[in-house]
Amino acid sequence: MKRDLLSTVIGCALLLAGVVGCDDNKTAESAPVSSTASATPVPANPSTSSNVSKNEEKSTDSESIVSEKMHVYIECYNDIDETIYRSIQSYSTWLADLKKGPTGKEEYVYGISKITADLDKCHANMSEVAALKPELEPIDKAALPYINSSIDIVNVINKMNKYYEQQDYKDDAFAKGKELHTQFMQAFSAFKSTSDTYSEAIHEINDRRQAQLLKKIEAQEGKSFDYYALSIMLTSKKINQAIQSDKLDTDATMKQVQDLGEQIEQLKSKQGEAKNDSRDRKPQASTFIDAAEKYLLDAKTRVRRIRDNTPLTTGEKMLMENAPQMVDGTFEKVMDSYNQMVTWFNAMGR
């Protein structure tokens, strides 16, 4: 169970990385106005012009609301989900079996980490944006069950934290600890279900919006630096999804990795062109490219390790317990590189 929980936390890291562009500082920006746009004649029919203007305004308003929703939904997810799973991870470390809970015979008792995230604020914000029109499905329907189940499990976790912090188990032979564990497992079952549904909804919407953004950039700018930067992020996310599969098609995934390498080379070419024009220079672009190449190497190493069925060494097995991101060819190391790449992608701005 301990291993499964760790994998879930890494899944959260994937989501954190997967939301690049969702703050919509990138997606909501309007296209640059061309020099010929101001010379466009005003339509003779003022009502037509008015209708067009209203339609554009309505479209902008709708996009603004969608962006607001996604900002709230993702911010709360990032604040809550991994924190809860890490708390559960801390609880599982001293239990022989998480499902069964404490027996009273444990050699060491470490309790469970307290959660201080502002769930009430998230509940208020998520309730507010979920009611806004237009509807954004499937996430609007997934949002409130998620935050409600989060509140339920956090309430139980914090009661458990106090119980173990005060060492009350020494006075009641773990009686309340066992009672709280039953409540915990019920809350955890509900939380995990809603968390999985909510996470999938964020991914679905985010993937759709990023694909639309990529097309928009290509239509406005051609295959520019921004185009290749975002394309690299989208391709990398597909690679992440492939390499965490139980049955990896190494040949197909290696082709994706090679395609990523070609995109990075195209990006480097665009960066070289930008050096000749200060207006096109991107802050942190070189660091992003370095991070992308590091991710590329780690992704290749992961695919090769699975393809060649390379076993873990004794030293690597030890590292896997506490620092799997340090082991070459692990999914955790790929994700660590990916998250670094996301950091620098966001730092570049647009």
Q: Can you describe what's shown?
A:
The chain contains 11 helices and no strands. By secondary structure, it is an all-alpha fold. The chain has 2 domains: 189 residues, no CATH class; 128 residues.
Over all CA atoms, what is the radius of gyration?
24 Å
Beta-strand share of residues: under 5%
Question: How much helical structure, as a percent, in the residues?
Answer: over 70%
Largest sheet: none
Identify the notable features of this structure and list them briefly.
YiiG family protein; mainly alpha; 11 helices; 350 residues
Task: Please sum up the structure shown.
The chain has helices at residues 2-18, 46-92, 119-130, 139-165, 169-172, 175-221, 225-243, 250-274, 285-307, 314-322, 331-348. The chain has 350 residues and is mainly alpha-helical. Pfam families: DUF3829.
Summarize the SSE layout with pairings.
Elements: H1 2-18, H2 46-92, H3 119-130, H4 139-165, H5 169-172, H6 175-221, H7 225-243, H8 250-274, H9 285-307, H10 314-322, H11 331-348
Helix pairs in contact: 1-2, 1-11, 2-3, 2-4, 3-4, 4-6, 6-7, 7-8, 7-9, 7-11, 8-9, 9-11
Biased composition (Basic and acidic residues): 54-63
Organism: Citrobacter enshiensis
Coiled coil: 250-277
